[in-house]
């Protein structure tokens, strides 16, 4: 009887010990500091990956921070304030051209079109692009993807943005919406949900999509320093796996279901508005369905930068794009 009591006690202690060990194993996750260039419904798959626990399934503990602007985001990445950055891939070209010894490498694409819409103060029921000529246009930051894509589209419609417009570029990215409402600009480029909110509140009217007009381009991409990727290959693979799962989930589910998942990131925006914004992006194919940044998209990016006079060097695709992780997770 005594032996049986000791045996039962020993078994209980072992179960407690093993349970504790198992619990510790489950909570041991690899931390990743992730910096996003802005907070936007355009990045819906990223928020889905966080909210649906897809990063956690891969053993990753992702800490998201919004760094508001491409220059600030890249500074955070290069100074180790972030491990991974979600930002326009043009920033990696700028860093590389400065002979950086530890440059940023693009490893997973999130969005594949421009995410801005042309918003006007007045209604334009039968809008034609040449209506922009001689107008005051509140532009984006010089050298940033929104501005370069905007100029690319305008030139396709025979509009020289610097000669045919009164182009204003003296407002910080985060302050552009407010400056449009309070200023004299007749047109502006805005992301969702700001564009739809302005339309609902009567502050502007969405009259065209720069995403539809510009075609596929690696607009927003996850990137990390070359050294970080080299030293953390399995972490990057797991990160890419979670992104791919989120992309597939977004592809397979309705705009309303996606909106319900990401609503915590847009507490001041009602569900209906989030849903309509997602529907706009889904309908024009803005969300990439897999994380591969292909060479054709890279060449489109360089053409857009060249047109804007912002391409510092003809950077080879092989130097700044690593598709190994993306191809691995989708089985290519």
UniProtKB/TrEMBL annotation:
Record-level GO cellular component terms: periplasmic space
Subcellular locations according to the entry: Periplasm
Domain of life: Bacteria
Keywords annotated in UniProt: Signal
A Pfam family it matches: NMT1_2
Main location: periplasm
SUPFAM superfamilies in the cross-refs: Periplasmic binding protein-like II (SSF53850)
Gene3D superfamilies registered for this protein in UniProt: Periplasmic binding protein-like II
Signal peptide: 1-22
Family: Belongs to the bacterial solute-binding protein SsuA/TauA family.
Protein name, entry field: Binding protein YtlA
Species name: Lentibacillus populi
Gene: ytlA
């Amino acid at each position: 009887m005594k032996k049986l009591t000791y045996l039962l006690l020993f078994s209980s202690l072992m179960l407690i010990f093993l349970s504790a060990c198992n619990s510790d194993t489950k909570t041991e996750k690899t931390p990743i500091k992730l910096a996003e260039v802005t907070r936007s419904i355009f990045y819906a798959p990223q928020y889905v990956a966080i909210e649906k626990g897809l990063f956690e399934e891969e053993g990753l503990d992702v800490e998201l921070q919004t760094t508001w602007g491409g220059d600030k985001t890249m500074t955070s990445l290069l100074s180790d304030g972030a491990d991974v950055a979600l930002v326009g891939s043009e920033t990696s070209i700028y860093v590389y051209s400065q002979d950086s010894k530890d440059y940023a490498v693009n490893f997973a694409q999130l969005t594949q079109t421009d995410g801005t819409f042309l918003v006007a103060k007045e209604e334009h029921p039968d809008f034609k692009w040449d209506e922009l000529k001689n107008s005051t246009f509140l532009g984006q930051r010089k050298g940033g993807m929104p501005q370069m894509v905007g100029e690319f589209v305008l030139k396709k419609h025979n509009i020289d943005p610097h000669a045919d417009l009164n182009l204003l570029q003296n407002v910080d990215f985060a302050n552009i919406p407010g400056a449009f409402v309070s200023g004299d600009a007749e047109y502006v480029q805005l992301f969702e949900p700001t564009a739809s909110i302005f339309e609902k509140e009567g502050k502007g009217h969405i009259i065209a999509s720069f995403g539809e007009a510009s075609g596929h381009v690696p607009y927003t991409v996850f990137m990390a320093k070359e050294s970080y990727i080299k030293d953390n290959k399995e972490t990057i693979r797991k990160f890419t796996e979670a992104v791919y799962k989120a992309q597939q989930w977004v592809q397979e589910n309705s705009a309303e279901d996606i909106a319900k998942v990401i609503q915590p990131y847009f507490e001041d925006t009602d569900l209906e508005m989030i849903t309509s914004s997602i529907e706009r992006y889904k309908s024009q194919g803005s969300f990439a369905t897999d994380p591969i940044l292909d060479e054709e998209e890279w060449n489109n990016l360089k053409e857009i930068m060249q047109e804007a006079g912002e391409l510092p060097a003809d950077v080879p695709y092989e130097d700044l794009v690593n598709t190994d992780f993306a191809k691995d997770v989708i089985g290519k």
